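pasting for the record
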Amino acid sequence: MRTLRVLSLGAGVQSTTLALMHHERTVDPFDHIIFADTGWEPQAVYDHLEDLRGMMGITVVSAGDVRSFAPTWRGDGQTRFASMPLWFRGENGRMNLLRRQCTREYKIEPIEKYIRREIMGLTPRQWWPKDVMLEVSLGISTDEMNRVAQDSRKKWKVNVFPLLDLAMSRDDCVEYLSERGYAPVRSACIGCPYRSNNEWEQIKLVPEEWDSAIEFDEAVREVLPDASTFLHRSGVPLRDVDLSGENNSSLLHECSGVCAN
């Protein structure tokens, strides 16, 4: 059986480490490196991505702009709500999250679609060949074992974690990159609801990105029919949030090793 080796590049700390190891041939090289663009990454991520593309072959795919979602009517009384995990206040007064679908719809699926159609030449309904195993490498380090999910739910695909095999933590990756002059930012959408206050402060340092997040936050207020939705976990409009307060526990690690690595 042949193995097709693909690196899912988030352009953050861990996946950048794997990309550079590929470039330096300190790991078995990948057949393809693919970055799924949500259309709403910080400019620092795009700049870093272009630096990497100047060194090695990286394919950029996209399912469109993650901000373009809206409730989509599918039938009588059925709606498809926002794929982003927006915050809303439940009947018990506590803040809850909508189900997260954005990682799959804007990261995992466009990469799989590209592999099936462009690399393997398969039609939409064509079976994956039995003699090829797709191996997708994810940038998950030893301090993030809770993100490990080898079961891809597809017989022809397996997720692998080279940094675990190398016993590398996120700090090890930071040191590795620093020695080579790199300091990539954490890769995640500008308005990701999983951000801590400290991470929102970083977005605020870039006025156009902060304005973009505020504009989007105001646009999603009525996604649910019976509760207001927000980007910030406090349930307060982003422009009014006191970022010096609590809520400094980042949830960006929830993005399955695809977004924030």
